Amino acid sequence: MNPTRLRSVLNLTVLVAALGYFVDMFDLLLFPIVRQPSLTALGVPPGLQIEVGASLLNWQMAGMLLGGIFWGVLGDKKGRLSTLFGSIALYSVANLGNAFVQSVPAYAMWRFLAGLGLAGELGAAVTMVSEILPKDLRGYGTAIVAAVGIFGAVTAKLVGDFFPWRITYAVGGGLGVALLFLRVGIRESFMFAKTHEATVTRGDFLSLFTDWGRLGRYVRCILIGLPTWFVVGILITFSPEFAPVLKVTGPVSAGTAVAFCYTGITLGSVLSGFLSQACHTRKKVVGWFVAGALAGVGVYLTVRGLTPGLFYLLAGYLGLATGYWAVFVTVAAEQFGTNLRATVATTVPNFVRGAVPLITGGFLAFRSSLGLVGSAWAVGLVCFALAFGALWGLPETHGRDLDFVE
């Protein structure tokens, strides 16, 4: 890419979107990183920490499910900037609240509000970047957003290693507040501004369900993201509980597993974004990554006797293979017109996250009869089968002109 083209990608909007995703991922991954020390400090016995941890994660994901609808509709009705910075403000306040909880119910309330806020950032960021960049450079823009953003999870791990869990939550909230000052100088997407002149309804969430073609595209976009949160929500979040069953030769830290996984996701985000540009296809790249993730899950659940170091490397590989998240959200954004784009790009990833209660619920339901490994196989194979089936029927969108309405 020549210097002029590079400068067109590295603009202030892309930078702010990337930093917003950095704070988003920092806050989103705080709970898996501090789950064990925070629950221990609140008096939850070790034998109940899987159930309580899954419940708190479900509260957060339920907030993201509802928040995805709210912020998505707001993004198409009022603008992408309103969604971007409104969501940052809410999850920053919520994570500051998490720093002062004294009970599990209070913890659940603040995780729900944090999830409600976290729901809006990525969809708004990808929508803005997709609409301001030339159509042949969109993949680079979203790759940069993802690469910078997902380092937030790695930073969360480093902060979690050096500070108590309450301070870690406070740092996450403070980073979000600081980011709000970057709002100055960011302009709204010109494509969104043009919709004010069009006689078309903006942000009509229910219209996604009134046309079979739109509904099919929408559901397929959701299903192709399921493997990512199966890996993160089950295999990585509960890696300390899996390690003894898998006969790992030493103790495994959830925080370290998360850091390795999200380092891999960072690399995968860059790789998938650049591959989608180089190969001129989003669909095939997502398919390659989903297949690679399935192979990694097979190794995770079948190989025994790994050292903790090799286990962490495997977590890193799983992150790499599920690092198509930003490309997946870009695919969703490119499927729909400007009057529904923010709604789709915001709700799709959050409906995937909102499926986590179903994934964890299925995992916990099968655990008593199938054990940890058998239950993970059962739930994981369903997630991957749905993803492959959905991807098969999804139209290719690389290079599509996005200046259209539904």
How would you describe the overall organization of this protein?
The chain is an all-alpha fold. It has one domain (3-181, 205-392): Up-down Bundle (Growth Hormone, Chain: A). Helices cover 76% and strands 0% of the residues. The protein has helices at residues 3-9, 12-28, 30-41, 49-77, 80-98, 104-118, 121-132, 138-162, 165-179, 190-194, 212-223, 226-236, 239-245, 254-278, 283-302, 308-321, 325-335, 338-354, 356-392. Helix 4 runs antiparallel to helix 5 (80-98) and helix 5 (80-98) runs antiparallel to helix 9. The longest helix has 37 residues, at 356-392. The chain is globular, with a radius of gyration of 20 Å. The two termini are 33 Å apart. The model has no long low-confidence stretch (mean pLDDT 87).
How are the SSEs placed, and which strands pair?
Elements: H1 3-9, H2 12-28, H3 30-41, H4 49-77, H5 80-98, H6 104-118, H7 121-132, H8 138-162, H9 165-179, H10 190-194, H11 212-223, H12 226-236, H13 239-245, H14 254-278, H15 283-302, H16 308-321, H17 325-335, H18 338-354, H19 356-392
Helix pairs in contact: 2-5, 2-7, 2-8, 2-9, 3-4, 3-9, 3-14, 4-5, 4-6, 4-18, 4-19, 5-6, 5-7, 5-9, 7-8, 7-17, 7-18, 8-14, 8-17, 11-17, 11-18, 11-19, 12-15, 12-19, 14-16, 15-16, 15-19, 17-18
Pfam families: MFS_1 (PF07690)
Domain Major facilitator superfamily (MFS) profile: 13-398
InterPro entries: MFS, MFS_dom, MFS_trans_sf
